[in-house]
Amino acid sequence: MAKNIAQGALLIGIAVVLQSLRLIIPLPLQASTFIIGTLIHMMLTLTVKLNGLTTAIVLSCILPVFAYAQGQLMLPLLIPVVVLGNTIYVIFLKQFNQGWQQFLAPIAKALVMGISAYIFISFIQLPKPQMAKFLLFAMTVPQIITGIAGILLAKTVQKRLKI
Question: Does position 107 have pLDDT exceeding 90, yes or no?
Answer without folding.
Answer: yes
